[in-house]
Amino acid sequence: MDYNGKVAVITGGASGIGFATAKQLAARGAQLVLVDVQADALGHARDALKQITKQQIATRICDVSDLDDMRALADEVMADMGGVHILFNNAGIAVGGPVAAMSHDDWRWVIDVDLWGPIHGVEVFLPHMQRAKQGGHILFTASFAGLVPNVGLGPYCVAKYGVVALAEVLHRELREDGIGVSVLCPMRVGTNIGTSERNRDVRYGGPAASPTVPEQGEENADLAGRVLDVDDVAAQVVKAIDEKRLYILPHAESRQYIQRRFQRIDQAFAT
């Protein structure tokens, strides 16, 4: 893709994989719309990106779980930027613990942000991309937990399995539109998802109600996979746009677990 002047909308764009990808796209000349719920983080992200590019950088405070917020975002992007060429549905949160310990608000929060958020992104931006007939690319941050069940991350797995399915369907449906689709399914990455409770709204009980996920650092030997640097993962995200590749699997060590899952499914046909 020729990124120069293209408009990229990135949810969860103020930190982690979203911000790292924004840096990669800025270096290639893209115009950016960073979307997040944290105003201070957005300001820091915008200032850092201004050191990289002279292209337009817009920031928007938006709750991806709120369809009205997302509709307003799309209207503003179209009015201010004239279109969208890359949509990265990246915003996400997590809670930890066994399914039996999850409250209804735990389920609502995870599904609303991690699954309805990407659905809302598609709802409000895809029609504009199709009408423009300029191709483009839609990306999703899912997880290794969207391909293989992870004990202690039940609601997160349910949401991320849905995100993978959404990406797979769109990958087929949008071929004639020339719109590529990619879904990122990493294991551990050096982000702040382990402190998701900081953004838990009072609608879902607030930060104190949130059961935290296990420590995501290398020191936690109970979790599989290396902790990858966000910049390395972002480089793979951009490469997938260029290659119009559906699956982005940055952890080679995840392959054995994914293979085992599909082997179990295949073996079920022999019973």
Structural topology:
Elements: E1 7-11, H1 16-27, E2 31-36, H2 39-49, E3 57-61, H3 67-81, E4 86-89, H4 104-132, E5 136-141, H5 154-173, E6 179-184, H6 230-243, E7 247-248, H7 255-268
Parallel strand pairs: 1-2, 1-4, 2-3, 4-5, 5-6, 6-7
Quick summary of this structure?
The chain has helices at residues 16-27, 39-49, 67-81, 104-132, 154-173, 230-243, 255-268, and strands at residues 7-11, 31-36, 57-61, 86-89, 136-141, 179-184, 247-248. The chain has 271 residues and is an alpha/beta fold.
- Strand order across the largest sheet: 3-2-1-4-5-6-7
What is the name of the CATH superfamily?
A: NAD(P)-binding Rossmann-like Domain
Number of strand elements: 7
Largest sheet: 7 strands, parallel
Assess the beta-strand content as a share of residues. 5-15%
Q: In which range does the helix fraction lie?
A: 40-55%
What class, by secondary structure content? alpha/beta
Q: How far is the N terminus from the C terminus?
A: 47 Å
CATH C-level class: Alpha Beta
The residue ranges in which pLDDT falls below 50 over 5 or more consecutive positions are none
Count up the helices: 7
Gyration radius, to the nearest Å?
18 Å
CATH topology: Rossmann fold
